[in-house]
Design brief:
It contains 15 helices and no strands. By secondary structure, the chain is mostly helical. The longest helix has 49 residues. It is globular, with a radius of gyration of 20 Å.
Length: 412
């Protein structure tokens, strides 16, 4: 009976980790991992595994800090000093519009391919943004939480089936030897690939906010064990699906002579073909729905998370609590995204590249802030990371800083 109760509580605690997965499994997987496989085969598998390993502690510190203190990482940033909170506020403001534009344009391409009403991506972007706004302002966190379990399961099942069939059908031998990109273009792609694999590090702050929100919407508060279990489920799912998409790109498109399109419409068709080539044309509708639902979930979660983070930051900086902060920021982000896509009508890949590189270059700030916060006086000692996790954290910080400098020097 106690074991049944434990399993029920663990399942009930699932939510923030799956929201993390929903935000992560989007552009980084459908676009970047597929491109990595198509352009380099399995040559960048080392990069995928390494960046997931080195980013792991900093993402985990989000739910760890939230359950240890009952506060978000953003509250913690203020405790480290108001200047740290100001830096977080500025970085979030500077990146959130580009991030939202990148995920929205990819979602619009998939919607155009699936529904076929109009090829105009601006129209689709407006529709998707307005629908997302309605979901979040009416359904709020609870609806987001409930939707994500279905979305992640649908994509996972379809991706596993597609990979199994692709492996079974291929007659080509592939090398797993690491490939180290050379030249500015290839290095830029690597940094962009690392930037959102599995997700930008600022999602750690979002995760801490979702953990607190989850506690508000459940009868029993989530303890540290439940929160970390939830996080690990979501994190493992993002790694596994990242490998799946890289594998599909490598098996179906590598050395095929076909180049990944920079346009959202054509890319979405290529993405669907990755699946239908292996599963048959009859699966096209099912796969299109799964891919669109996945990207829509990313658009939805990022549209919720950035305003939630900016609202919390505004409350702390102004020392004033108000529900209107969230409404203000979500409306501003929605309007800003549509303006960017309308007036800076450039390729999907350009939006993705700018957003992902910015995320990677700002990652050291989040890594250092999270590590200092979780290891210091503001976190109860029993929740401090182990020696092994601390070692991994230091290694991760050096990894992020080292690759950032490598990219900057490659530009000159």
């Amino acid at each position: 009976m106690q074991m049944l109760k434990f399993k029920k509580n663990i399942f009930a605690s699932l939510g923030p980790g799956l929201l993390f997965a929903g935000a992560a499994i989007g552009v980084s997987h459908l676009v970047q991992s597929t491109r990595a496989g198509a352009d380099f085969g399995f040559g960048l598998l080392w990069a995928l595994l390494l960046v997931n390993l080195f980013k792991y502690p900093f993402f985990q510190y989000g739910p760890r800090y939230a359950t240890a203190t009952g506060e978000s990482l953003i509250d913690g940033y203020k405790k480290l000093g108001k200047s740290v909170l100001v830096i977080y506020f500025v970085l979030t403001f500077l990146t959130m519009f580009t991030i939202q534009a990148a995920v929205t344009i990819v979602t619009a391409g998939l919607a155009s391919n699936l529904f076929g009403i109009t090829p105009n991506l601006i129209v689709w972007s407006i529709i998707i943004t307005l629908v997302s706004l309605t979901f979040l302002l009416v359904g709020k966190y609870k609806l987001l939480d409930n939707m994500m379990k279905f979305i992640i399961l649908t994509l996972a099942i379809s991706s596993i089936i597609a990979v199994i069939i692709a492996v079974y059908k291929t007659n080509t031998s592939f090398s797993f030897a690491p490939v180290f990109p050379k030249g500015t273009v290839e290095i830029s792609f690597l940094i962009a690939f690392l930037g959102w694999m599995p997700a930008p590090l600022d999602i750690s702050a979002w995760h801490s906010l979702w953990t607190i929100e989850k506690n508000k919407n459940t009868e029993h508060s989530i303890d540290s064990k439940g929160a970390l279990f939830d996080f690990n489920v979501g994190y493992i799912a993002t790694i596994f699906l990242g490998i799946c998409f890289l594998t599909l790109g490598a098996l179906v498109m590598f050395q095929s002579g076909e180049e990944i399109s920079t346009g959202a419409n054509k890319f979405s068709k290529q993405l669907i073909n990755l699946y239908t080539t292996n599963l048959g044309k009859g699966a096209a509708v099912f796969i299109s729905i799964a891919a669109f639902t996945t990207m829509f979930s990313t658009t939805l979660t990022t549209l919720d998370a950035s305003p939630r983070a900016m609202a919390k930051s505004s409350e702390l900086l102004l020392d004033k609590q108000s529900n209107s902060f969230y409404v203000f920021w979500i409306l501003l982000l929605a309007a800003g995204t549509i303006i960017i896509l309308n007036f800076f009508n450039t390729s999907m890949i350009t939006f993705v590249k700018i957003a992902t590189i910015l995320s990677f270059l700002t990652a050291p700030f989040y890594a250092i802030a999270n590590f200092i916060l979780i290891s210091g006086k503001h976190t109860p000692k029993e929740f401090h990371p182990s020696k092994m996790l601390k070692t991994l954290s230091v290694s991760g910080i050096l990894f992020l800083i080292g690759f950032s400098f490598w990219y900057i020097f490659s530009l000159f």
